[in-house]
UniProtKB/TrEMBL annotation:
Keywords: Hydrolase. Belongs to the HAD-like hydrolase superfamily. It comes from the Eukaryota. SUPFAM superfamilies: HAD-like. InterPro entries: HAD-like_sf (IPR036412), HAD-SF_hydro_IIA (IPR006357), HAD_sf (IPR023214). The keyword ATP-binding does not apply. It comes from Loxostege sticticalis. PANTHER family: 4-NITROPHENYLPHOSPHATASE-RELATED (PTHR19288), RE04130P-RELATED (PTHR19288:SF4). Pfam families: Hydrolase_6, Hydrolase_like. This is 4-nitrophenylphosphatase. NCBIfam families: HAD-SF-IIA.
């Protein structure tokens, strides 16, 4: 594994070589284009990339935002066509279920938006209970299997609880029940310098206890990377530069799917990057803004 290259320290011919090494830019959103608010230089960065003939696509693990919210924040970042070119777990999961002609109930341990997206795609969705019981005796009322449930979906439910996890594990005991995960982030950057615990560790418990391997429709899952490629009309992963701020999800997705990777240091530090034992990006930079003058 060779050491990551700081693109802002490349000479002009080396920078041109870097630019010539990809045709498509895929970018994460949270922590790259915005952190709470749009980060300066983001819109300019993608405009310049398009000026160099690159196609641009956005790939986020965040299904929590509504469409309107995405449209607004892309606009604030100076990006007019962001939502149309965005791949997120909720829509990827809906497309996957359609592709296998799924027609049973989906048990959702998801954020409200993912639940809505699956419902609006015609799937029968069930969820809850949102509040657990204080005693195992009361908790027993929730534990009858429902043979109509044919899929369990986990995607960023901030109200995940013991009973929901138990129900998921119970359904997954039937081998024909599909198991699909969206975002499995262990931490999320919620404001500059502040990482909050994500819902990934809860999904890990379900994976471990059910002994099932989920279909991963979120970063760093290869299926998700390939889904983004097909949405973007891209066939050769080695001609994609994937930009992200999180080593495990973004550099991980790049490695799993065969993309080149660029880490922006809005979240991980250079020391974190160098210390990671298995995942190193090909390139790094302080931010998108720091690359704009070279473009
Ligand atoms: Mg991010």
């Amino acid at each position: 594994m060779s050491d990551p290259v700081n693109v802002t320290e490349l000479g002009s011919s080396e920078f041109k070589e870097f630019l010539d090494s990809f045709d498509h830019v895929f970018s994460d959103c949270d922590g790259v284009i915005w952190i709470e608010d749009a980060l300066p230089g983001s819109g300019e960065f993608f405009k310049k990339m398009k000026g160099h003939g690159k196609t641009v696509h956005y790939v986020s693990n965040n299904s929590l935002r509504t469409k309107q919210n995405y449209v607004e924040i892309f606009k604030a970042a100076g990006i007019d066509d962001g939502y149309e070119n965005l791949t997120i777990p909720s829509t990827a999961i809906a497309e996957y279920l359609k592709s296998v002609n799924f027609d049973k109930k989906v048990y959702c341990i998801t954020c409200p938006e993912t639940f809505k997206v699956l419902q609006s795609n015609g799937f029968k969705c069930v969820q809850g209970p949102d509040f657990g019981s204080d005693f195992y005796q009361e908790y027993a009322q929730y534990l009858d299997d429902d043979p109509e449930v044919g899929a369990v979906v986990c995607d960023c439910d901030f109200n995940v609880n013991l009973i929901k996890m138990h129900k998921a594990i119970m359904y997954l005991r039937r081998p024909d029940v599909l198991f699909i995960t969206g975002a499995t982030d262990r931490y999320a950057l919620v404001k500059p310098g502040c990482l909050a615990l994500g819902t990934g560790p809860f999904t890990d418990i379900i994976i471990e206890e059910s002994k099932r391997v989920p279909i991963s429709m979120g970063k760093p899952g290869k299926t998700f990377g390939e889904f983004a490629m097909s949405r973007a009309g891209v066939t050769n992963p080695s001609r994609v530069l994937f930009i992200g701020d999180t080593i495990a999800t973004d550099v991980g997705l790049g490695k799993n799917t065969g993309f080149k990777t660029l880490l922006v240091l809005n979240n991980a530090t250079k020391e974190d990057m160098m210390a990671h034992k298995t995942l190193k990006p090909d390139y790094f930079a302080d931010s998108l803004e720091s690359i704009v003058p070279l473009l």
